[in-house]
From TrEMBL:
This is 3-oxoadipate enol-lactonase 2. SUPFAM superfamilies: alpha/beta-Hydrolases (SSF53474). Residues 24-253 form the AB hydrolase-1 domain. InterPro entries: AB_hydrolase_1, AB_hydrolase_fold, AB_hydrolase_sf, Epox_hydrolase-like. GO terms for molecular function: 3-oxoadipate enol-lactonase activity. The keyword Aminoacyl-tRNA synthetase does not apply. The keyword Hydrolase applies. Its EC number is 3.1.1.24. It comes from Gimesia chilikensis. Transmembrane segments: none annotated.
């Protein structure tokens, strides 16, 4: 099946989106500071049964950059408007990784009628600690002064497990290239937005839709215990731990992640 890349005018910016396949809508929301390209294995797999929608978020990939701060709410509003532009009227299966998960909470808060299911990969629901906020703002400063090259290689041990780095060095190389190609202002804007994001841990029990949580066993940024706690608090959630992978489970173990998603979505249909 062929993939289609479109540009849509969304809330004052030009937004690039990849669409593939036919069927119920599956929205894939990438992590920071990446683009829709992180989902290639999922796009190829799920286009057989779903209409896969994989946008580049504001500030990333082929979409326009907004200088300043881009909140998680802004990203959620962009996705809602994008779906409207694409004339997707039925509720979506929303799959987000890391920052994509932060956006999912805001999407649920503001547009619950647009959600059928949630798939949350390697993410969390609490707000940043003071140290977390400080680290994000340090990265903002570093990237704006010296460009994404200053942080790309240093991010890899946090994104990929040692097993993945040893066995599949090309994944690390591709991620480094993707991060280095990102716009410094785009990185800074969403990093500021993540530093300011709301805490959703206390309201997870209100999210009354089926949810699948996927986490790499070796994820150092959002470890399994954090995601298992979220699964306990969500009324209709299960948690799948993928062995020997890190924060980029859909990239590091595409087949296992695709299988977990497929099983979950088959029941949800």
């Amino acid at each position: 099946m062929s993939q289609q890349m479109l540009e849509q005018n969304v809330n004052g910016i030009r937004m690039q989106v990849t669409i593939a396949g036919e069927g119920p809508p599956l929205l894939l929301v990438h992590g920071f500071p990446l683009s829709h390209r992180m989902w290639q294995a999922q796009i190829a797999h799920f286009q057989q049964q779903y209409t896969v929608i994989a946008p580049d978020l504001r500030g990333f990939g082929g979409s326009d950059v907004t200088v300043g701060t881009v909140s998680m709410k802004q990203h959620a509003e962009d996705l809602k408007e994008l779906l409207a532009q694409l004339e997707v009227e039925e509720p979506v299966n929303f799959c987000g990784l890391s920052m994509g998960g932060y956006i999912a909470w805001e999407f649920w808060r503001h547009f619950p009628e647009k959600l059928k299911t949630l798939i949350l990969c390697d993410t969390r629901s609490d707000a940043d600690t003071e140290e977390g906020v400080s680290n994000r703002l340090k990265m903002v400063d570093l990237v704006l002064r010296h460009g994404p090259e200053a942080v790309a290689s240093a991010m890899i041990p946090n994104l990929l497990s040692k097993t993945s780095r040893d066995l599949y060095p090309e994944i690390a190389q591709d991620l480094i290239a993707e991060i280095e190609a990102a716009d410094p202002e785009g990185i800074a804007a969403s990093q500021r937005g993540m530093a300011e994001r709301d805490d959703f841990l206390g309201v997870l029990d209100q999210i009354q839709i089926p949810a699948l949580l996927i986490v790499g066993s070796d994820d150092v940024l959002t470890p399994p215990d954090i995601m298992q706690e979220m699964a306990v608090r969500l009324p209709e959630a299960s948690c799948r731990e993928i062995p020997r992978v890190g924060h980029m489970a859909p990239l590091e173990a595409a087949e296992e992640v695709n299988q977990a998603m497929e099983e979950f979505l088959a029941v949800a249909r």
